[in-house]
Amino acid sequence: MKTFPNVFEPTLAEIMQQPFPLKTKWNQDYFKNSRPITLELGCGRGEYTTGLAVRNPERNYIGVDIKGARIWQGAKFALENRLTNVAFIRTRIEFITSFFGPSEVDEIWLTFPDPQEKKRRAKKRLTGSRFLNAYRTFVRPGGTIHLKTDHQGLYEYTLNLLAYNHQQPEVFTTDLYGSSLAGTAGAIQTYYEQMFLREGKKVFYLAFALKTDHEYAELPETEYVE
After folding, report:
1. Which of 15, 116, 205, 210 would staple 121 via disulfide (CB 3.0–4.6 Å)?
2. Mean pLDDT score of the chain, rounded to an integer?
3. Does residue 214 fall inside a structural domain?
4. 58 in a structural domain
């Protein structure tokens, strides 16, 4: 994968010691255009990143994951299909602010992220206040955050966090494929999503506009009931 021109794998030392070279310059130096950038955080095999790129060639897409074996599949597909609007970053999402500058990203997709059920891991939830405040540093004002999950607890936690911060989602459903949103948010299915659907599980979905002028506060109680 180190030979792939669409994959970036900076070391921890490189991330911590100096600004990532493409920070604030993704459109200028990598994509060579001014089109909106969408991130998929925890992209896994990259099905969503590449699927969106195929469907929307007028936009740029970047998938982020720590697992190289997963990224390899999406990156290889993008190269074989000459998708010039796709890139991947292999890194921990905790370091995501190192890669993007103010208003550089248009929207974020969170597709079946780890629900982080344990209280001690609550700060790792990708829809928690810690990460929402991180996204505020590089997502444009009003940029959309999408969440798809099979975990009812994570879905409800996110709704409650938004309500606690005096915000309502733009759209939300407890059964994506039984709703009118299936043709849009459900148009692309990941490997795991297909597996969940075969098992008869419901897919929860919500989308909301990120308030970049508002610091998100965490819920007083963030532990799920197991």
Report:
1. 116
2. 93
3. no
4. yes
